[in-house]
Amino acid sequence: MLPLTIALILAFASNVKAACDNQCSGHGTCLTDDVCQCYDNYGVGLSHDSGDCSERVCPFEIAWVDTPNKKGAFHKYAECANRGICNRDSGECECFDGYEGKGCARTSCPNDCSGHGTCEYIQDMKFAATWNDYTNKGFIEDGKTFAYTNWDEQKVRGCVCDALYGDVDCSKRMCPYGTDVLDIRDNLLVSTKYQVQELRFKTGGGGVVSVNDDKTFALTFKSRLNETFTTIPIRFDPNDLPDMVHDIQLALLSLPNRVIDGVTVAAALDVATYANAVYVNVNVTFTGNAVQGPQHLLVVEDFECNEGCTPRLTGLNVETRYQWTGPNITEIRLADFNSYECGRRGKCDYGTGLCQCFLGYTGDNCNTLTTLV
């Protein structure tokens, strides 16, 4: 009789232990009310009720789109960010096309930027073409980013194309830009005007030029095709301006691929008694066919660049970035020329990056007229 009693007690104890469904599938604890208390990231169904704890819960991220709450707030946290289906076996999101990452939190870039660019978050997108584009009222701002804290921060991404490539997926080769040779100028009685940029160096005070013996700097030029070129070192010598002018012109004309195919340089000292300062004003005039029309402003590389970088520069101990009188590089004369893809006189072959000029035009950027009507 005793063995039978013991067996009944053991069977009853076993049934009590097994009261929770499927013994919580090994992913939870069975409570006294026969309800599973699931471990983290386990549950059942869309509502993630405890059930038998047999299914995985996928990562939650800020929803791309959802219904508002009673206060009208959108973009709550949602499983797979409402842009994917949860695989309950693996606990991983199967994201819809165009979305990726943990919980489908971010967009993917179209065609992976075609191998010709980088996929960047919206808050990292650059505005500036050169340093001069993001100076404002005497303060140097971060030219790469602006403060951005909206809901899609760290979520929306786009392509930032390499030089010579464009379009939303960086799949197209860019073609040369040039002026429209038939564009009409406002006044044909005056000589054609080229763009002139002024570089302004504050080199001394009290009417005295500061000493910068054997100091070197460089100039960086960014083309309309987003190629960036930096010159060889240029010796800064305000006491011998003709030699300095010659060095600047030679350095710009020596940039690769004849990216600047014509330029003239002039310089003069400006003793500003009102500012108790001495300035070296360098005027750079773009005259070549490849640089007709508005060009990006040059950038003065005035920092020391010693071991492990190129070009090797000693740097300048003069003000070249921003002065109280304004930025150090400005466009002081607009060009009569314009700048269009293929000179507006041809079509760009985006596969090769070559212009297919219309009949009567030729040249890399179709700005050479071959037929007179």
Q: Any descriptors?
A:
single chain; 373 residues; mainly beta; five-stranded antiparallel beta sheet; four-stranded antiparallel beta sheet; 2 helices; 8% helix; 32% strand
Short summary:
The chain contains 2 helices and 33 strands. The chain is 8% helix and 32% strand.
SSE class: mainly beta
Q: What is the total tally of β strands?
A: 33
Mean pLDDT: 86
Estimated helix fraction: under 10%
How much beta, percentage-wise? 25-35%
Tell me, briefly, the overall form: elongated
Low-confidence stretches: 7-16, 136-142
Count of DSSP H/I helices: 2
Secondary structure layout plus pairing:
Layout: H1 2-17, E1 28-30, E2 36-38, E3 42-43, E4 55-56, E5 60-62, E6 77-79, E7 84-87, E8 92-95, E9 99-100, E10 106-107, E11 117-121, E12 135-136, E13 139-140, E14 157-161, E15 165-166, E16 172-173, E17 177-178, E18 196-205, E19 208-209, E20 216-222, E21 228-230, E22 234-235, H2 241-253, E23 263-272, E24 277-286, E25 299-301, E26 322-323, E27 326-327, E28 329-333, E29 340-341, E30 346-349, E31 354-357, E32 361-362, E33 368-369
Antiparallel strand pairs: 1-2, 3-4, 5-6, 7-8, 9-10, 11-14, 12-13, 15-16, 17-29, 18-19, 18-24, 18-28, 20-21, 20-22, 20-25, 23-24, 26-27, 30-31, 32-33
